[in-house]
Design goal:
Blueprint: H1 2-59, H2 63-71, H3 73-114, H4 118-139, H5 144-187, E1 194-197, E2 201-204, H6 209-238, H7 249-265, H8 272-315
Antiparallel strand pairs: 1-2
Helix pairs in contact: 1-3, 1-4, 3-6, 3-7, 5-6, 5-8, 6-7, 7-8
Length: 317
């Protein structure tokens, strides 16, 4: 019983230290993500201002503009620039929302970190290691090293299971948000022509402002949910045991560029059905990633059971 108590205490301390390390990694990750989004927002703003200047020139009088008007080129040029401006407006609007949500996540991580005393936990863990070593030398000196190896592998497997569960939950949330975005796009699928007013943002010709805002809100909620799923997958990927590896590279890379593409599709004179198809593809990717996580989850559970049986056979407990 004493060994079980020591092991349980070690698992608790390791879990708290792992949480501290994980929060520190998340803090750096989110900080980098905020900086990246802010850089993109600045870049898009510069591009939008350049397009506005070009549109102003198109509106002004010049012999070249007269020639373009006679040939119809001016209308084509204006349509092209307005289309580009509409895309940039959406990207800037989304970037602002992302900065707000990521900043909120960042502050929550900092708050949690302040509540953990890593130095104190490390000290308690060192004392516990001494107690475990003394116990094994006294009760099971011949198999002490093997028991400790099994105990450490058991601990890592339990932590991996915890990380996988958190990633699965984040994936389920992402699926829910993607489903809401898909439903909102479906309800607007009958409308394909969009107009832009630079002072007030993108406005669909036949949709009410609130309907458009609702769709954009659902897309943003899906975006931030995917980002959080992405971050949880990175945590899982960082965890490994002697027998288990979790590879999630495919989705980690995919999440970064999806909504940039969807904004390019969902613009002036474009069809909402294209955006719906992109959302559908992301839903499939998330489903497949969750399925792979579930497979790893079951494998880790079987591995943990085998470790515990081997350890119990040695200790006769």
């Amino acid at each position: 019983m004493e060994w079980q108590q020591l092991q349980a205490e070690q698992e608790k301390l390791h879990g708290q230290l792992r949480s501290a390390n994980r929060l520190s990694e998340q803090k750096l990750l989110i900080e980098g993500q905020i900086a990246h989004v802010e850089q993109e927002m600045t870049k898009h703003s510069v591009e939008l201002n350049q397009i506005r200047l070009k549109l102003d020139k198109l509106e002004g009088f010049s012999f070249m503009n007269m020639i373009r008007t006679w040939t119809g080129q001016q209308d084509e040029l204006r349509a092209e620039k307005i289309d580009q401006a509409a895309i940039l407006e959406l990207k800037i609007k989304e970037a602002k929302k992302m900065v707000t949500d990521l900043t909120s996540d960042f502050e929550q991580v900092k708050k949690k970190l302040k509540q953990i005393n890593e130095k104190q936990l490390q000290g308690a863990l060192e004392i516990l290691h001494i107690k475990k070593k003394s116990y094994l030398q006294l009760h099971e000196p011949e198999v002490a090293q093997k028991i400790e190896q099994l105990a450490n592998e058991e601990l890592m497997t339990k932590q991996l299971l915890s990380e996988i569960k958190e990633a699965e939950d984040a994936g389920d949330t992402a699926l829910t948000k993607l489903g809401q975005a898909a439903a909102s796009l479906h309800s607007a699928s009958g409308y394909s022509t969009w107009d832009t007013f630079f002072g007030g943002g993108l406005i669909a010709t036949h949709l009410k402002h609130e309907a458009l805002d609702k769709t954009e809100s659902y897309l943003h909620n899906a975006q931030i949910a995917l980002q959080r799923f992405h971050n949880e997958l990175l945590d899982v990927q960082d965890m490994s045991t002697n027998a288990l590896q979790v590879e999630t590279d495919g989705f980690v890379k995919f999440a970064d560029y999806f909504f940039d593409d969807i904004f390019s599709a969902w613009s002036v004179h474009s069809k909402i059905s294209t955006a719906r198809e992109q959302v559908s593809r992301v839903q499939d990717d998330v489903h497949n990633t969750i399925r792979r996580l579930q497979e790893k989850h079951h494998k880790a559970l079987r591995y943990l059971e085998a470790l515990q049986q081997e350890k119990e056979a040695i200790l006769q407990i």
